Amino acid sequence: MIVYIKKGIDDEIANPNFYAAYDGFKQLGFEIRYFRHTKELTEHKPEDLVVGYVNGIRRVLARHGIVTPEIDYPEELSAYLERKVWITKLSAVANAPDSWGIFVKPVEDKKFTGVVVRGTKDLVGCGTYGEDPEVFCSEIVNFVSEWRCFVRYGRILDVRPYRGDWRQHFDASVLEEMVERFESAPKGYSIDIGLTDQGRTLLIEVNDGYALGHYGLNTLDYAKLLSARWAELTGIEDECDF
């Protein structure tokens, strides 16, 4: 397996997540090559893992006939949301001011950054001219702290805080239940969880493991998680399954 890692315009590895992947795969002994644009990957084979931004990786996988699923809110974990979540069009949100005071994020992963919509100014930057993307909408929950849980082959690798009061802590038993009940889970993914101001540990969202922030996860674990999901998507043997 060759690992292709995206570089930026300064010819350095493009961001800390990609560097963490580089460090992990380097320790594992894989050949590493670099690219700036996915169009440069003319000799790419399905077994060669690509580290980059979501849209770029999706373009590479699409060349091989692979479509990545949207797994933000799995049916098995709906009980852990404790809030209403629905899908609509961005235009429907913009044209329904009575519904504002909701959280909005794109169905297509990372098309824009999720935002709480309380007025028209909050919708700036959420769309592209001529497009009307599907979006997830949800009722607002007051999370006082948030964490990312990394899971590989059904086992929790680590849980990393990324927002909120560091003195607070989630209910570990609830998180373990989520992982156990997520029967359709990919081989590598993360679960974002939050602690509410009422002391409830809830699901924020699930992130697919082919491209996700490492948030301080051990770089070897991070590389092996990426490899597990890449192998599953491409239907090849996971060379890091050890």
Summarize the structure.
By secondary structure, the chain is an alpha+beta fold. The protein has helices at residues 16-28, 54-63, 90-94, 172-181, 219-234; strands spanning 2-6, 31-35, 49-51, 85-89, 102-106, 115-117, 134-139, 143-152, 155-164, 188-196, 201-208.
Task: Describe the protein in words.
The chain is an alpha+beta fold and 242 residues long. It folds into 3 domains: 1-68 and 213-242; 73-80 and 141-209, D-amino Acid Aminotransferase, Chain A, domain 1, CATH 3.30.470.20; 83-139, no CATH class. Helix content is 22%, strand content 29%. The chain is built from 5 helices and 11 strands; from the N terminus they run βαββαβαβββββαββα. The protein has helices at residues 16-28, 54-63, 90-94, 172-181, 219-234, and strands at residues 2-6, 31-35, 49-51, 85-89, 102-106, 115-117, 134-139, 143-152, 155-164, 188-196, 201-208. It has a 4-stranded antiparallel beta sheet with strand order 4-7-5-6.
